[in-house]
Hints:
With 474 residues, the protein is of the alpha+beta class. 35% of the residues lie in helices and 20% in strands. Strands 1, 4, 5, 6, 7 and 8 form a six-stranded mixed beta sheet that branches. The protein has a four-stranded antiparallel beta sheet with strand order 9-10-11-12, with no helix packed on it. A three-stranded antiparallel beta sheet has the order 13-14-15, covered by helices on one side. The two termini are 33 Å apart. The mean pLDDT is 91.
Amino acid sequence: MKPPIGVSTFERLEALVANDALYELADAVPTPDPTAGGRPRMYPVYMWLLYDALLSVWGSARRVEAELSHPVVWNQLRRLIADKFPDQPDRWLPAKPMRRWHYLYGRSTWLTDPAVFAQLHDTHRRCAIDQARTLGLLDPDGPGSWTRPELSRMLYADGKVVMPLFRAKPDTRILNKTTGELRTPRFEADAGLHFEGTGETAWGLKFVLVAVRTTDRHGRIILDTDWVPSPGGEATTALDSIGRIAAEAPGLQGVIYDGALRGVHHQRLLRDLGLLPINKVTAAQGTGPNRKKANKERVEKSTFVEQRTITTPDGTERTIDLFARAGAIGILTIADTGEKLFTELPRIRTSRKADKVGTFRWYNHHRLPDHLGGGVIVVRLHGNDEDRVRKFNRTENVRAIPPSDPAFRALYARRNDAESINRAFDDTLWLRRAHTVGADRQRLNLLTYALAVNALALHRHRRTSSDPPLPLAA
């Protein structure tokens, strides 16, 4: 039976309990030595993580406590756990509902401990990659090529600024007009001023979310989340996250991102990770938040790439100048009127070659126009020492699949889903403000949000698919 489009809170609870990743994460939390003394844990460790994940279902820790305290909800949760682990009574829940202070202790003492969270972070990424494989994503033997990448083997990512719980900035001071006292209100110490892709600014903590998805409505898997510790560091954080995923997902073909990725980041993706970056070249003018108000038309960047000597079919050698416009390779000619005309060279295929040292070389094969013989010319996509000598940032100006290419539109459209992830996360926040204070706690909130998203995708997949899952990545 086809599931309803909407998702009830009970279904989200069922999906979380059915998600094996919840218990793998719990197993990554150390167990204290019982001989050292201290009160034993009243609830299994997975309840701390489940409680945090339910923040994205019910909006706040107090609301989660209220919902779990209801006999219908708590008894349903106990039954789900008992059905999942019929032979493991140590995982069963007691009759008394878990309270908020149990969760706060587990979160503050264990889950946000740097060493423990590092384990949770790695475990979540590994589980999420395996879950993506279960849904048919990131399949090394799947469809697609370097010339025509397959969406099911493409990551997409974006930065997300989370509004702090407190409005005050570190330098905010409040004057009590009665007593004359000057005090500092509570503020988010880890927040910073970040720049959005439109050029607008946002105050808060910035995170990067990396995902893949199927064509199903709820087929999204968030593979990794990470905090951007300093303003302007989004691309570096994203590349580190993508690098970790690429090391564990051999079926990965490329990354879809916005203009935060510049030439240096493209070079790392191409040369070091062997992945195709899909994004647009920054325009020469006509971008930013006030572009429409100022009625500025977008003007694409046009740059000289290199000079090449070709041999025409009649044996004549000709020298041509190759230019890049909006990332596309072409030839620039001067019309009788003096106007510069750009003729794009159609892309035939894209090739990748592996070096013995573990790096990669990338090339585009283009078709020359008929008046130049209609042959094929090969253009290098990655930068090298020759480019550095002439101070030419090739990866900033040349794209393997430029926006004018027929394959670009379908690939880049997936970036809209990154905005959808950001909006969906906003909708889980009370008044669109962070659940907690501090980067450590918010990183945990985002990780368990990803856990809930992935759990729903798996839950819906199991209910609608009768196909056997792909084998998990080794």
